[in-house]
Specification:
The complex is a heterodimer of chains A (237) and B (276). Chain A is mainly alpha-helical and 237 residues long. Helices cover 55% and strands 9% of the residues of chain A. In chain B, α3 runs parallel beside α7. Classes of the chains: A mainly alpha (237), B mainly alpha (276).
């Protein structure tokens, strides 16, 4: 059956991408958001329109057909014949109505699920720390979004930032408790990180390829964005 | 669980073949033979098969009684079946008795025997039963059950096919439960909790989506545990399970996973420290 295929294609897109991004982590990952399949979305909506017009036609046909069978006016003149005639007509035209309605709902469900999941994953991206409005989005993700989604991201970002500012607390920071003795070794892997100022006032120039030994709390935001990498892995202990 | 759940939506795409119980008006496009018959009939009766000369909707394209519609997706015939517009003569092949017996046999195999045969006794359900075997099967079982409840037992006394279908679905439900919680589950639990750095693709390839989710949850918790063991001062990753009241209570979706299991396809979610 040819109906409902476009919706399925959208969902398979999502499913495939959520399984593929395991190898990448950091700002290059597309965070499970595949390229926006505008063509399939449009095809889905066209299918919905088609089903709706069919439905309209059928409803008009059945209601006028019932009238015609009984001689033209809508009143139930001849009770016995009129009633069975109308019932017979309506009964066998019901499956078509139900079918188009089911297709309509199916396409709607697929579309809604597709957009909902993309929006959810975008929200997760923001929570991971890609603040700064639409500019803060990594390019790999940005190219995959529709315009409306970029707008959604920037509005959500401003919403979250203003909320965090109002309660004077950054909700997106790390959940681990701060540990003053938690020192880590980091290597800078991105060319222009700049300099940071640590708590005790010293400036540290983060040039590409250098290794530093600092408190985790100070470099955490850099680690999360993927600009530096931590060397405290099992191999180095 | 839910309206937006991708796996549930995809599972409803499972195809069934149904038989119409009376004439279905305006739906001849569903069956190519009916399209041909209608045109031929019109040509015989009226000398032309131009549809626009007909006002009466009966003369237009319709599906005659007892047409077998093959490969209709579950979501399209659900309402029809509930209202008894169609009948299901036979279940899809993977839910029929022969395959059910095979599943029952493998589920009942003892663990002593299976120890020597790595993965050989786990039937490739992905291939033979479809990606969503359990979900699709339970959809059918629940549909027949709801139809039975809404229509009452009087239907089956007149219709032997329906009674037979109801018995089949009861047996199917039993088979599904036994298969899920039998040898397959034992193997999943075993491998997911112990093979955290080995190649598990030989098992994963045989599992359906529901079982894969379970495996991923187990594997990610094992990986987290080993990470914690090696780097003592890091916090243990909390695996948040979203319990899913679908096929069985055992199915769960992992909310947060670790990135190291490359062959399982896991990804970081928020509230996780990057760059361990």
């Amino acid at each position: 059956m040819k109906f409902g295929q476009k919706g399925k294609e959208l969902l398979l897109d999502l499913k495939r991408s959520s399984q593929q991004d395991h190898n990448q982590s950091g700002p290059d990952a597309a965070a499970g958001i595949p390229a926006y399949n505008a063509e399939a979305v449009r095809a889905c909506i066209d299918e919905c329109t088609h089903h709706y017009t069919e439905l309209e036609g059928l409803v008009a046909a059945t209601s006028s057909g019932a009238g015609r069978e009984r001689g033209g006016d809508g009143d139930d003149i001849d009770a016995a014949d009129g009633r069975t005639g109308r019932q017979r007509l309506e009964f066998s035209s019901r499956p078509a109505l139900l079918f188009h309605d089911a297709c309509l709902n199916r396409n709607r469900r697929c579309l809604l699920a597709y957009h909902r999941h993309r929006a959810d994953r975008l929200r997760d991206v923001r929570w991971e720390g890609a603040g700064g409005g639409a500019m803060g989005l990594p390019d790999a993700i940005r190219t995959n979004l529709a315009d409306a989604e970029v707008e959604f991201f920037s509005k959500y970002d401003s919403l979250l930032s203003s909320y965090c500012a109002k309660i004077n607390f950054d909700l997106t920071s790390s959940l681990a408790p701060p540990d003053h003795c938690y020192l880590v070794e980091i290597r800078v892997i991105s060319p222009d990180v700049g300099t940071i100022i640590t708590e005790d006032g010293s400036e540290i120039n983060l040039e590409m390829g250098t290794i530093h030994y600092l408190q985790y709390s100070e470099v955490e935001h850099l680690v999360r964005q993927g600009l530096v990498e931590m060397l405290n892995t099992e191999d180095n202990i | 669980m839910g309206y937006y759940d991708i796996d549930e939506i995809l599972a409803e795409d499972e195809c069934l073949s149904v038989t119409t119980k009376f004439n279905f008006l305006n739906l001849s496009f569903l069956d190519e033979d009916a399209l041909y018959d209608n045109r031929r009939r019109r040509r015989l009766n009226h000398g032309t098969d131009d549809e626009s000369i007909y006002d009466d909707v009966d003369e237009k394209s319709y599906l005659p009684e007892s047409t077998m519609l093959e490969s209709m997706p579950f979501w399209s015939i659900k309402q029809w079946f509930l209202l008894s517009f169609v009948s299901i003569q036979s279940l899809p092949r993977q839910f029929r008795k022969k395959f059910r017996d095979k599943l029952d046999a493998s589920a009942a195999m003892s663990s002593v025997d299976s120890g020597t045969n790595h993965g050989g006794d786990i039937i490739d359900l992905r291939l033979r039963g479809g990606n969503y075997y359990y979900e699709a099967g339970m959809n059918i079982v629940n549909l027949v059950r709801s139809q039975e409840i809404s229509r009452g037992r009087s239907d089956s006394s007149r219709d032997t096919d329906l009674a037979h279908l109801r018995r089949e679905t009861v047996a199917l439900k039993r088979t599904i439960l036994l298969t899920y919680s039998g040898e397959r589950l034992r193997r999943i639990l075993d491998w997911s909790l112990s093979c955290h750095d080995e190649d598990v693709s030989s098992l994963i390839g045989l599992l359906t989506e529901a079982e894969r989710r379970l495996f991923i949850v187990g594997a990610s918790s094992t990986t987290a545990f080993f990470r914690w063991k090696n780097n003592g001062m890091r916090p243990i990753i909390k695996i948040i399970l979203q319990s899913k009241a679908s096929v069985t209570p055992m199915v769960a979706r992992p909310k947060s996973v670790t990135p190291n299991h490359q062959d399982l396809g896991l990804q970081l979610v928020r509230k996780r420290q990057r760059g361990y």
